[in-house]
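Example: histidine kinase.
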Amino acid sequence: MRKLAASAAYRIAFTYSLALALAIVALGCAVYVAADASFRSQQDSAIADESAGLVRDFTDEGLGELRTEIAAREAGSATNAFGYALFDARGRRVAGALDTPRPPAGWHDIVFIDPVEGPDPARAYAHDLPGGLRLVVATDSAPVERMDATILWLFSGAFVLVLLLGLAGALLLGSYLRRRLARISGTAQAIVSGDLERRVPVGARGDEFDELALVLNAMLDRIAHLLENLRQVSGDVAHDLRTPLARLRNQLAEALDGKGDAAAVRAALERAIGQSDELLSLFAAILRISEVEGGALARTFARIELSELIGDLCDSYAPAVSDSGRSLKCEVDPGIRLHGDRELIAQAVINLLDNAQRHTPPGTEITVAADAGPEWIRLSVADNGPGVAAEDRPRIVRRFTRLDSSRTTPGHGLGLNLVAAIAAVHGGDVLIDDNRPGLRVTMVLPRAVS
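Written out as structure tokens, the predicted fold is:
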């Protein structure tokens, strides 16, 4: 019982059953009152009509006809539900068989003596006639009371039945809710115990529990992805920092062993500062990616004139690309607008341009393109250089991933990862394709509403 009381599922089910039972009680009371009032109104109407008929007989034919009519109606008592009594001014019953004291004029609930059952309740109407006479017409209240009792019994039985059905239904509903919720709590317990691959079962009905399961599973997938990223970053940071930190230590040790040669000490310290700057840039890149992936920047999004932004970037980078022995083309449709962060989009394009210059030989043609459909914008940077093997393309957007062909070039393998993070925070994705020849990196982003 304590377990049932502590269960929210059972409390909800029992509360619903109790509310239904109380509704039955309220309905029963309303029906009882309405039915009783209707029966009694019909009873009073019938008594009034019967009394009016007898009064007309007295008015038209006199006292003798009234007595005759009362006697005739009482003689047909098998079909007549009324009782009659005519009292004189002294209160003596001078006609009729209704055995009751002389009541005051008007409507009354009286008690009469039934020859078979003894004292019985009745509804009566007393009408004053000329000469101090008082005519009483009454009908037995027992039929109305029996109807009232029948209604009470019916609704009492219905109330008990509803309580029993409500109890059974509450137990079934509570058990069902506990089973559905137990799947969610069981999954949570498994994840707490270390089974990070566990997911909430999703049924085929598509009800609210299944919708909740889908949302929770999506959240768990996101958490698992973030944990995987965290493990990867932790390992990759440790791996990538080992070499530069060892080099930095050696350079500082070399400076200490300069043996008084100021020029050698200075050169060693300058190399150490350069190595420190490289490490600081690495941490700055990691922090920037974390900031973008956190999603807080999405609150500052505004409408961007993307065509204008890409044109400005191409104009700014064209001289540097040309000086490196490569060429830059810009193929951007006019009037493209994007809802996002101008600085982040510019950073993504700059990263892609830097990668295209860093990993292609002189003479390579680099193309920046942007076009828009009804709902999506495609922003790409392509080159006709050596490209990337198909099996390596999914890897190069991961943090600290550097292919063997790019080990000798500067960098930490974070450029494309930042591009992917920028695309994701804008609600888009990054596609890496073969440019035949070369490589094409495309950011697919949702288009801003004009």
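The longest helix spans residues 8-61.
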